[in-house]
Amino acid sequence: MKFMKLGLLTSAMALAAGTVSAGEIAVIVKTTSSNFWQNVNKGASAAIEGQSEHTMSFDGPATESAISDQVNLVENAINRGVSGIVLAPSDPEALAPAVKRAYESGIPVVIIDSALGEGAEGTYQAFLSTDNCAAGEQVAERMIEEAGTDGKVAIMSYVAGVGSEIGRVGCFTDYIEANSDLEIVGPYYSQSQMANALNQTTDVLSANPDLVGIFGANEPTAVGMGRALVQSGKAGQLVALGFDGNADLQEFVRDGVLEAIAVQGSFAMGEMGVNTVIDVLEGESVEDFINTGVVVVDESNIDSDKAQNVLY
């Protein structure tokens, strides 16, 4: 399905016409302190380097839970009259008014990674993301394959209510419940803080010595989970699956701490996000949803081209 709001397109074209020689595309992510989002930055930079009509700025709050700071970054981008915005919203409801204001200002917005709330439909031009529900199901299927259908599985999650978390963890849980007798422990929310995840995982492992599996649902959470497994001496004693693919997680896979990691196309989110904004500014229609994909990486395929193209 394709869509383009004519009023927005007209006003966006008027704005672009006045700034085309140096139109800024603001890329605003959930936090700048994560390797995942820095890989999005690399992809966005690659897209900008491939053309000469626009510049790019990259920003985000210090932490994913600093939602008001992210709202302010979007408001600031609107106030300085950027040509377009690529936004990874930390909260589906809190960012919606700012995106609506961008729409009313004739600034096209492309959403990446996490969806906005349903009421925001029509105020942005495209949504680029991993199909997080399908990814969650894929991880759950791997969990059942490796851990079996009986016992306890803990879920170490990140920020409750974020669009990516709802799909990823929700569909993981639904698949486990529908296809096994595994008992879910959690989810526990790290607020995307590695230290929180380490402490939470340590506590969960201590309280549930009979766990057969554990799932770390994003990069800082999975890193903290992996470190807790190592520190507790539990590495390799239960099936541990992670999400995202930074150097720490890759090392955990190589060392057998994690059985596998599901890795999003973070570079693709940045590159395709910026290119999609440029397409809108040039008057082209765009798909309303663009799947940036996920690759399950384990010890057997970690050095393959397919894995190396998504690891960072």
From TrEMBL:
Keyword Glycoprotein annotated: no
Annotated Periplasmic binding protein domain residues: 25-284
Keyword entries, A-Z: Signal
Keyword Signal annotated: yes
Main location per the UniProt record: other
Entry's Gene Ontology molecular function annotations: carbohydrate binding
InterPro entries: Peripla_BP_I (IPR028082), SBP_2_dom (IPR025997)
Family: Belongs to the bacterial solute-binding protein 2 family.
The protein's name in its UniProt record: Monosaccharide ABC transporter substrate-binding protein, CUT2 family
Taxonomic placement: Bacteria, Pseudomonadati, Pseudomonadota, Alphaproteobacteria, Rhodobacterales
